[in-house]
Design goal:
- By secondary structure, the chain is an alpha/beta fold.
- It folds into two domains: about 5-180 and about 310-330, Vaccinia Virus protein VP39 (Rossmann fold, 3-Layer(aba) Sandwich); about 190-280, no CATH class.
- The chain has helices at about 20-25, 40-50, 90, 95-110, 125-140, 190, 225-230, 275-280, 295-305, 310-330; strands at about 10-15, 30-35, 55, 70-75, 115-120, 140-150, 160-170, 200, 215.
- The strands form two sheets. Strands 3-2-1-4-5-7-6 form a seven-stranded mixed β-sheet, sandwiched between helices. Strands 8-9 form a two-stranded parallel ribbon.
- Helix 1 (about 20-25) links the parallel strand 1 (about 10-15) and strand 2 (about 30-35).
- The longest helix has 23 residues, at about 310-330.
- It starts with 8 loop residues before the first strand and ends with a helix.
- The site of S-adenosylmethionine has 23 residues, from helix 1, strand 2 and helix 4.
Length: about 325
């Protein structure tokens, strides 16, 4: 389906990373502005999404210079709410406070709708923050909804539970309805089983990969440790874990670059390649991370992202509901 630019809702994207969530919005919306702190993921954003991204600290960015967009999307960094991360919450954690910056930008520009993605722990250990956020958005004039969604329910070969908050400006007259889970269940085999052998790229050797970002250069942990795990599966306790072929992957993390041993290929004796990690995030192969992005950042932007199919389900359902509200208003029912 081809969507004409003038009919598209305009989107501004915050904490955009390498743009995995933006990729899901890109076809059906027009992304006019984005922001990201670090240059490395932004290089991938520019390559795959567009050059409209501004690199810099959003806290230093005056709200009145951010353009109006019909829809704002953003996943403020989650380390301060993550049980896997620092878990300091909004009071102590600097990154935790970024959700309030996002809130203040929404307060200033009042988009028709906004989406806020975060770790599920925000709805568990940091409920106070969640409820204060929801109350503040309601006071700003939004109909609020939130849901814990598992990407595995949307055709992604990964169990990845995330909190999705959606606000719809009250004058549009509806509450957002979250997308129904898809009927398709994907396994690790379904999404990476067809890939050719990864090309070896090290200081001493360069093989041209047959599929972009499908290279391996792993020398750590040592082959001895790796074989210890392979020969004694019980030793997987020692921080090493092979992915299952016929099940979903556990949640990929932003520190997969460092903790690659927790994400060993189901049969090959190495960690996942970036392409395999992208596939486990359901990202299409048309998304290519340029070689100018350091390998550790390639893994990080992948583990930080919103799985494409989950993003797509959210983007599509939101667009249909906004169009519906616009049509109802045009025929004068509201
Ligand atoms: C969870 S990731 C978002 C990933 C993105 N939604 C995607 O799907 O690819 C959060 C991003 O916020 C960025 N970030 C952290 N602090 C920031 C700040 N002060 N200003 C702007 N971006 C920031 C991080 O560099 C990181 O890329």
């Amino acid at each position: 389906m081809v969507y004409r630019e003038q009919n598209k809702f305009k989107v501004c994207s915050f904490f955009a990373g390498g743009g995995l969530l933006d990729l899901a919005f890109k076809e059906e919306y027009q992304i006019i502005w984005a922001n990201e702190l670090h240059e490395q993921p932004a290089l991938s954003y520019m390559h795959n999404i567009g050059r409209h991204i501004k690199v810099g600290d959003i806290l230093q960015h005056p709200n009145h210079l951010i353009p109006y967009g019909d829809v704002y999307i953003g996943g403020p960094p989650c380390v301060d709410y993550s049980s896997d991360g620092k878990n300091r919450g909004e009071e102590e954690g600097l990154t935790g406070r970024l959700v309030w910056k996002y809130q203040s930008i929404i307060a200033q520009n009042k988009p028709m709708a906004f989406l806020l993605e975060n770790v599920s722990n925000l709805a568990r250990q940091h409920k106070d923050t969640l409820y204060r956020l929801l109350t503040s958005f309601t006071d700003l004039g939004y109909n609020m909804g939130f849901r814990l969604l598992n990407a595995a329910d949307y055709g992604v070969a990964q169990s990845r539970e995330r909190l999705i908050i959606v606000g719809i400006r009250k004058d549009l007259g509806f509450f957002y309805e979250f997308p129904e889970p898809s009927q398709i269940r994907a396994t690790v085999r379904d999404v990476i089983g067809d890939l050719p052998e990864a090309a070896t790229v090290t200081k001493f050797m360069y093989e041209e990969p047959l599929v972009a970002n499908h290279t391996t250069n792993w020398e750590s942990p040592s082959p001895e440790r790796l074989y210890d795990v392979i020969l004694n599966p019980r030793n997987q306790r020692r921080g090493m874990r092979r992915l299952p072929w016929d099940d979903v992957s556990p949640t990929l993390t932003a520190h997969i670059a460092k903790d690659g041993r927790e994400f060993l290929h189901p049969t090959a004796d190495r960690r996942l390649t970036v392409r395999e990690a992208l596939r486990i995030m359901s990202v299409p192969d048309s998304y290519v991370i340029p070689g100018t992005v350091k390998l550790s950042h390639q893994y990080r932007l992948t583990g930080n992202g919103v799985p494409y199919l989950l993003g797509k389900a959210l983007a599509r359902s939101l667009r249909l509901q906004l169009l519906n509200a616009r049509d109802i208003r045009m025929v004068g029912i509201i």
